[in-house]
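User: Teach me something about this protein's shape.
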Amino acid sequence: MLLLLLLLLLLLLLLLLLLLLLLLLLLLLLLLLLLLLLLLLLLLLLLLLLLLLLLLLLLLLLLLLYYYYYYYYYYYYYYSTTTTRYCYCYYYYYYYYYYYYYYYYYYYYFYFYYYYYYYYYFYYYYYYHHRHCHHHHHHHYYYFYYYYYYYY
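Assistant: First, the predicted structure itself:
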C-alpha cells in the first residue's frame, strides 16, 4: 500500500513537472511571438522612414525643377528676348548662354591677355554695350579691367 502511494506521488510529481515544462514552452512561444511582432513594427517604421525620405527627395527634385525653370529658363531666355528688342545685343550669345558663354569668356580672356588691341575692343564692348543694353552681366567688364591692370 505504501509503495502504491509512493508511486502515485511520483506520478503526480512527474505530471506537475510536465505541466511546468509545457507552461515554460508556452511562455517561450509567447516571447518569440512578441519579438516577432516587435521586429515587424520596426520594419514597418523603417519602411515609413524610407517613404518619408523618398517624399523629401521628390520634394527636393520638384524644388530643383522649379529653380531650373525660374532662374535658368525664364530669367535668361525671357530677358535675352526682351533686351534684344530695345538695343543692339547679341541674341545668339544669350540664347546659348550655358553652351557657349564660358568658352567665349576664356577665348576672349586669352586674346585680351595677349593682345593690347583687344583690350580696347573689350573696353568698348563691355562698357558701352552694358551701359546701353541694361542686361545683367555687368561683372565681365570689371574682370577684364582688373586683369588688364594686374597683368600689365
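Now, about its shape. Helices lie at 2-86, 91-95, 97-114, 116-133, 139-151. DSSP finds five helices and no strands in the chain. If you'd like, I can walk through any region in more detail.
User: That's plenty for now, thanks!
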